[in-house]
């Protein structure tokens, strides 16, 4: 199973970065961790099989129609989605949130940069922002579930002008 996770798109019009669109077209499921900004952008993402939560910048129509949290099964993995936690410099609260929701992987947004951490048997993932990165590169995440093997890949979705270059990198794999 192949999922594409994104967040913090902050799109006022339905224009989605071309590479993100390409990745979503071949995914089994798209996960959006909030901050579409506009209902028009949400409608564009809704053309795909979508799990989404509301963010703190979403318009009132989205706040009323999208949940604050979502949980679902993908293969043998239980996944949760939230927009943000109560973090300042670390993400311990999101590990505890994953425990509360009884999920193996918690996808979150709000920080606009790619983050992956695994603590106490729980994993947290922020796919970054494909349109408005903060101290990072424009990105999304690919989650590949093959039986008990899980791989997380960071995809760069806008041109990068630094030594990192390339298409992205594999953040981590783990076996459940």
Write a concise keyword list for the protein shown above:
176 residues; alpha/beta; Purple Acid Phosphatase, chain A, domain 2; 11 strands; 18% helix
Describe the structure.
The structure is a single chain. The chain is an alpha/beta fold and 176 residues long. The chain has a single domain, classed as Metallo-dependent phosphatases (Purple Acid Phosphatase, chain A, domain 2), CATH 3.60.21.10. The protein has four helices and eleven strands. The strands form two sheets. It has a six-stranded mixed β-sheet with strand order 3-2-1-9-10-11, with helices on one face. A hairpin with a 2-residue loop joins strand 9 (139-146) and strand 10. The mean pLDDT is 88.
The H/E string reads EHEHEHEEHEEEEEE
Strand order of the largest sheet: 3-2-1-9-10-11
Give the CATH class.
Alpha Beta
Provide mean pLDDT, rounded: 88
Low-confidence stretches: none
Q: What is the end-to-end distance? A: 15 Å
Count of alpha and pi helical runs:
4
What is the name of the CATH topology? Answer: Purple Acid Phosphatase, chain A, domain 2
- Which strand-content bin applies to the residues? 25-35%
Overall 3D shape: globular
* CATH architecture label: 4-Layer Sandwich
**Total strand count, please?**
11
